[in-house]
Amino acid sequence: MRQTLAVLVENNPGVLARVAGLFSRRGFNIDSLAVGRTDNPAVSRMTIVVEGDDHTLEQVTKQLHKLIDVIKIIDVTAEEYVDRELVLIKVSADPGQRIEIAQIAEIFRARIVDLGRRTLTLECTGNEGKIRAFEESLRPYGIKELVRTGKIAMLRGSRYTGGGNGKEEE
Amino acid sequence: MVKSGAQILVDGLLEQGVDTIFGYPGGAVLPIYDALYDAEIRHILTRHEQGAAHAADGYARASGRPGVCLATSGPGATNLVTGITNAYMDSVPLVAFTGQVVTAQLGKDSFQEADITGITLPVTKHNYLVKDVRELARVVREAFYLATTGRPGPVLVDIPRDVSAGLTGDEDPGPVNLPGYRPVTEPAPARVEEAVRAILAAERPVIYAGGGVVNSGAHAELQRFAELILAPVTATLMGLTGFPGDHPLSLGMLGMHGSKYANYAVCECDLLIAVGVRFDDRVTGRLECFAKDAKIIHIDIDPAEIGKNVRVDIAIVGDVKKTLNALCARLKARLPGAWQEKIRQWKKEYPLTYEENGHLKPQQVIREIYRATGGRARIATDVGQHQMWTAQYYTFTRPRSFISSGGLGTMGFGLPAAIGVQVACPDEVVFSISGDGSIQMNIQEMATAVNYDLPVKIAVMDNGYLGMVRQWQELFYNRRYSYTELRNPDFVKLAEAYGAAGRRVTKPEEVAPALAEALAAPKPVMIDFVIEREENVLPMVPPGESLDKMLG
Amino acid sequence: MEIVAAEALVRCLEEEKVEIIFGLPGGAMVPVYDALYHSKIKHVLVRHEQGAAHAADGYARATGRVGVGMATSGPGATNLVTGIANAYMDSVPLVIFTGQVNTSQVGTDAFQEVDITGITIPVTKHNYLVKDPKKLPEIVKKAFYIASSGRPGPVLIDLPRDVASAPIEFQYPREIVLRGYKPTYRGHPTKINEAARLINEAQRPVIYAGGGIINAGAGAELQALAQTVSAPVTNTFMGLSSFPGDHPLFLGMLGLHGTRYANLAVTECDLLIALGARFDDRVTGKLSSFAPQAKIIHVDIDPAEIGKNVRIHVPIVGDVKQILQALLPLLEKRERPAWLQRIEELKRLYPLRYERENGLKPQFIIEELYRLTGGDAVVVTDVGQHQMWVAQYYRFSRPRSLISSGGLGTMGFGLPAAVGAQLGLPGKLVILVTGDGSFQMNIQELATVREQSLPLKIFILNNQQLGMVRQLQEVYCEGRYMAVDFKFHPDFALLAKAYDMAGYTVRDEKEAALVLPEVLAAPGPALVNCLVHPEENVSPMVLAGRGIHEAIEC
Asked: A-chain residues within 8 Å CB-CB of B117?
């Protein structure tokens, strides 16, 4: 089972190492980890996708909370949420196949960002399901190179996770 | 054939030619110790795991072969951290095996559990947590390969108890295949050519040689190279045995406590040939002033060291021995000139000196040890003033005969390292030169020395202080000796309680007879040399100053 | 006013009412040590930094205050790692200062440089690398707060030399803000009510009390609970001394080497009240057979411990003292004659025992020490068989009178911890019971004992073996003894004399009867080398993978 956590942390040097070390030490499996700034320069936001059952997730959350630099944790998968990931895929594309691939791109609202002699590079943004489907549809052509950013996520509706004081408001 | 993980480990060690392990048992390594019960590997039981790590380190430095240590999980593993870090800083091939709780218990704060792979991430060349017994044979091969190739360093292998007790078929894991690790040993011919041109053009060359020469086994090549181009050779602490100290081209050690003539030579040279060194702060002093008028050639096997601290003109990544051979092949003998004459004058004008006032001086003791051993002993030291005096006053001529903690500067290294050296070199004379502060740190290893009949000779330079710290407090803090004075045990009685021989020396004339007696004794001997209390190590480059601003 | 940051550090420590620092100086720490030169804070110079960490730890366990240790950079810092990990595993409040190279040199492999903050991430509650000298006072205050609040633990502060030498305006902050750290102390009223209901309904309750009772100072509340509801009490190793050892409701220690009656009581109970304990593997044995008939109430200040190893019916996060205070008024007085009778029966059927014949027995020494000290000493131990025998045969009466490494099980903890404990409790009788293996690990601290003139009494239960490992090899490796026979030992009594202390050797019960009382009454430090039977086993013992009800006699 995969679950997604949004973790607000103090933007201190070494925070990433602390979180990574915790996961490694406790044997939690990280599926993906994306980290970046928030509106508040003192706070960073990590989106961590964890593989594990309910008990594991409970422990992940509780152990993360013990880190002094962790301010707030939201279990995004427990609520209604929006998630996005960006993927760049370099796919084999003989001139004869280009049109087909372009059509696939259009279906997924992906863009062609580079043209090689025998390859096309496409960029696609979407939720987990869409990215997976996009990858699968390109696979038959031969994927040369693939890079994913990792998932970022946010709760739906007017509730928000405050960047500065970790408050939630309706 | 079905084997246990422990058996696979033992077979792996035998395949690597390991004949000695230094270790300390515990619950998590029970299966491994059981496999060792029948094995043709000598196990040396130390009295603290730090002793095991330092002994394995000393063994490696003296023999050139990888040192192996074994400890249990939790505190056994954490007790190895200083020893592993020490090996890491000095590029010593060490393979440390630690037991770990069973895989199902990992990450649960179990009894005697420690995240040793997490803890040692910053201080190992690489480390492994083996979760599947089928991986173990491959991991052992890789660990030894990583520890001993390229720039050597410590590798830790953490083995959960159920993995060492687990069974699997005996399959050959095949040759080592690490796509992320491909050390470059052959120097690029173009770089060699550039270096040759620079050498030919230089008028005042100096060779700055370090531990890389020793690791590469390149002392003969270095000597040939130096003699060919008539460049004086100065060594770092780690490189002291890479070039014979009694050679006319030898300048001895450079840096913070180096000789004046070595430091002046570096300041005034126009070509600095850096061989197997890393421009460490103890050597360079103020970086902007270091060899500021010189072109710099840097030969090292670790590309990350080149250009790390100092801008370099010609970078040659490769094995020191191969590179020196390549250079020698393209160079012709030079004739002596003004530079060599200048060096000779400096040596005459600024010899290493100390004041003789009838008291027992540490420098005298070191000279006496040198004389009594014919300059041919293996000398281990601890860290502090005595270490610097040893580097200055014992003239080393044989590679791997000076075993001292350079990068980490670990007090307590000396005695266990000397034990490792004696195990590696059973028929040689082995000394551990220590201070009264340092010797107490791993004093428990006296029991190990006596237990295994290792006749190490321990010379304690006893000034009743943490000498080097006291010196800094004297020179920079107005003699405010804050917590550096030591009240010590009676070292002679202590040695005897340990079943070793003990002797106290307080006067200069007692030194030679005491040493003769010690060398003749077939057992460990501790000599308490009560030396001048406030003797300082000179010369000294104050921290942050350039090399030519020496005190003393 | 403007002062050097190192001087400010000393003032911060004075603000925190630190009385003792255990440390060892070095190059990177010279500025701090210079500032300490005139301070009224006592600095105890140890002989190895591991000794400093363990001494600060022993001091903290003995007094309940934050222990402070100090070391230089590089090897000084790495030498602290075991001691820090030890404090982490046993939830001991420590603040450790390490020197560091100049900020511009960090990350360059400088002399005596090490990434101690990276290394200690897994074994500290939190750590800091101070890069801005102005932040130092705030960091110190935060460190002391984090170390001593919630679930206590070690905090490390790494201080570069140039930062320590920089001038700052000193002001000790009045408040600090830690957004990511808000421990819960008050238990949730709903959960407390539920717990009360279960306790009132239970037929066969057992209280399983751990180190948390001692950290919370909840000994009186524990006793009140036990007596009100007539629930027998068993302690974890870390919980020993939280409940009077000679109380009729006391079951002794449970788990791997616990009493059989404690283990069976837990197996038969229908309600397990876990207070400040963490269901460690040494206690539970095979998890599926641990307290199989019981509902479990778990009170702990650390939410991450609740439900970590075992399924909990009523979790209560908070300070155990406050929670018990809230709980007690809701409980009905019970007498439980049938259950207590069953407990007495178990005690009768499975007492702790050993054979006194065939040589001097370690258990005898401990019983003698218990008798001679009136059960009133502060007992420090090392790790191994002797540690288990102390847990079994010395009945503790006051909290914080057992100072011993539980979670990490660190051999070599004893002597330096005893130094710390004695300095924290001047005037109290502090005895060290240790093994011949453990004692040698930090033997260098005898110099510290001598220098500080500590009236410490050291009893070595010397069986010339690495006893516990030998026992494990007897049980699991068919007696193939490997690397456990210390074929050579120093003469401990002579060694004591080299350190200018009284040293004795005891070979039989007669000699023990003469020497022990004399040593305990003598004013100065003393060491007694007791040559005990080499093949005595700790009994009972729960074998690996078995339930605690299946313990065997060894």
From this structure: 24
Q: Which helix (H) or strand (E) holds C536?
A: none
Q: CATH for C2-169, among 3.40.50.920, 3.90.190.10, 3.40.50.970, 3.30.70.260?
A: 3.40.50.970
Average pLDDT over residues C410-426: 98
Q: What is the 3-state secondary structure (H, E, C) of B450-469?
A: HHCCCCCEEEEEECCECHHH
What pLDDT sits at residue A162?
A: 63
Q: Does the structural domain C362-531 have CATH classification 3.40.50.2300?
A: no
pLDDT at C40 over 70: yes
Q: Are residues A38 and A102 in the same domain?
A: no
Q: Are residues B200 and B339 in the same domain?
A: yes
The reply to whether B236 and B312 lie within a common domain is yes
Looking at the structure of chain B, the number of domains it has is 3
For residue A170, name the pLDDT band (cuts at 50, 70, 90).
Answer: very low
Predicted TM-score of the model (pTM): 0.96
Same domain? B15 vs B155: yes
**What value does the mean pLDDT take over residues B301-328?**
95
**pLDDT, tens only, A91-112:** 999 989 999 999 999 999 999 9
In a domain, B230, yes or no: yes
Confidence band, pLDDT 50/70/90 cuts, at residue A161: confident
Q: How confident is the model at residue C69 (pLDDT cuts 50, 70, 90)?
A: very high
| pLDDT exceeds cutoff 90 at B180 | no
Would you say residue B15 lies in a domain? Answer: yes
* B183 alpha-carbon distance from chain centroid: 22
Q: Cα–Cα distance between B225 and B207 in angstroms, integer?
A: 10
Size of interface A-C (CB pairs under 8 A): 43
Supply the CATH number for residue B390's domain: 3.40.50.970
Over range C145-155, report the average pLDDT: 98
Work out the minimum CA distance from C45 to partner chain B, whole angstroms: 7
B380 to chain A nearest CA, in Å? 37
CA distance C332 to C323: 16
User: Which tens digits make up the pLDDT trace of B458-514?
Assistant: 999 999 999 999 999 999 999 999 999 999 999 999 999 999 999 999 999 999 999
| Domain C189-349 and domain C362-531 have a common topology | yes
- The answer to whether residue B542 neighbours chain C at the CB level (below 8 Å) is no
Is the Cβ–Cβ distance between C157 and C97 less than 8 Å? Answer: yes
CATH number (domain holding residue A90)? 3.30.70.1150
Q: Cβ of A55 under 8 Å from any chain B Cβ?
A: no
What DSSP line would sit under B465-532, residue for residue? B-HHHHHHHHHHSTT---S-B-----HHHHHHHTTSEEEEE-SHHHHHHHHHHHHH-SS-EEEEEE--
Nearest to B523 by CA among B457, B460, B447: B457
Q: Can you tell me the distance from the alpha carbon of C408 to that of C392, in angstroms, rounded to the nearest whole number?
A: 20
Nearest CA in chain A to B117: A25
Q: What is the pLDDT of residue A166?
A: 43
CB contact under 8 A, C495 and B497: yes
Q: Are residues A6 and A71 in the same domain?
A: yes
Asked if A65 and A88 sit in the same domain, the reply is no
Three-state DSSP string of C52-82: HHHHHHHHHHHHCCCEEEEECCCHHHHCCHH
Q: The domain containing residue B277 runs over which residues?
A: 189-349
Q: What is the pLDDT of residue B492?
A: 98
Q: Which CATH number fits domain C189-349: 3.40.50.300, 3.10.690.10, 1.10.730.10, 3.40.50.1220?
A: 3.40.50.1220
In angstroms, the CA C160 to CA C231 distance is 54
Distance from the Cα of A21 to chain B's closest Cα (Å) equals 7
Q: What residues of A are in contact with residue B118 (Cβ under 8 Å)?
A: 21, 24-25
Complex ipTM > 0.95: yes
Contact C125 A62 (CB under 8 A): no
Task: Note whether B489 contacts C447, CB cutoff 8 Å.
Answer: yes
Judge whether residue C24 has pLDDT over 50.
yes
